[in-house]
Amino acid sequence: MTSTSTVAARARALWTFHGRGRVLHLTWFAFFLTFVVWFDFAPFAKTIGAQLHLTEAEIKTVGICNVALTVPARIFIGMALDRWGPRRVFSAILGFAVVPNTIFAVSSSFNSLVLSRLALSVVGAGFVVGIRMVAEWFPPRELGAAEGIYGGWGNFGSAAAAFSLPLVAGLIGGADGWRWAIGGVGVLAAAYGVVYFRTVADTPDGVSFARPRRQGALEVTHRSAVWGLAALTVPINGVLVLIGWRIWREEVVSDATFVVVLAGTAGLLIVQELALWRVNTAARANAYRPRDRYPVRTVAVLCLAYFATFGSELAVVTMLPAFFADTWSLGPAAAGVAASAFAFMNLVARPGGGLLSDLLGSRRGTLMVLCIGLVAGYGLLAALGPAWPWGLAVVACMVCSLFVQAGEGAVYAIVPLVKKRVSGQISGLVGAYGNVGAVVFLTLGLFVPARVFFLAIAGTALVATVACRFLIEPEHSFAVDLVSEEAEEAEADRVELAALPAGS
Question: Quick one: which of 110, 230, 246, 426 is 20 to 30 A from 303 by CA?
Fold first, then answer.
């Protein structure tokens, strides 16, 4: 256990605007802005639909396009991050955001809305960049709380967009108020991209930035891991088919277009599988020394846990307003406020999950306990019905969301520690599974009642709980100091050479 004085010292390091604390706060705000831009359509969906004469199916399609490319983008941004560093990549994402966001703000047709939201879905993948940036600046024993603050406060950008942008549009007034509000956040993001580029560094002084030895796919370190990674790649592409099917089901695109989507997704999967086969030649030959290997099964367990936690959060936040309106006959405003309690917990729950992971001495054990809480939380939501006072139902949602978001914090307290030189790609892969979970759960929600929907998520969380038993906790999970991966390898080589017999 950690002493009270030690915890207080760590807290001071997190809240100061100097050194690594400064980098943390600059980085979570960058993530916050990407989420404000990514979610700036939802508050104006009905307004835009009415002004541009869109059908209900077309409005839903624009919403789906907003997440369509986020899944593969997290993988490719992870590769770019490991190659060029978080400072450059995060600044580039923020700068890029202004282009499709401005096109969306001035759009007057369904096609331009769709194309601009597809491009903006890439901005939603910016989350993975800050995960590595924070990991480069905070020692392992403090990483959970730091990553929790980064993720929780950055995620709050979605809620900030929901309540602030309509207010800005109202202050501007007129039919084009939404255009100015949306366009303004894109300009703000681009300006902050310049600030971020000029004010942060990838690593502290004296610590080198570890890069992958091979480019083009995630580098694994054992023959069986190649097959495991190949299997993990399939659902990421499969969800693109599911998104295409949902758009086709709304009769917005033709059968021929849907066939093109299927063919394109199959082609992307083949390219990815060939790339990982090529990049991992050494792994297929089992050429890595045991001390340089890392377990891909740990990555797989983290993917499943994030599927159940963040995936369910995105899905539940989307369906809760309708759930409250249908179950307790609340008006749109009241239902929206009641449902917002679930997302609001992000400010404290996700940092809390990361902090618990730091303090309890077992990152795997912490994640397992929180997954059990997830099972109980969604079991509680499945029991909700008209007989419950709706205020008590809001409390139940907050309790469930506490475990959901604390679980997210516990997942990303482990992710950056698995293998530093490829931590951007691992972060992207795990993050992508969160989006996969959201699409799968939302699609399930089209066909089953709310009770079954919540029970299905609880079942997934139960599977994740069992899977945590197979997670191997990374070495040095609670190391006190920052040490570069190159320095660790050099020290290991020195020890190995010193142990050899003289003259060998």
Answer: 246
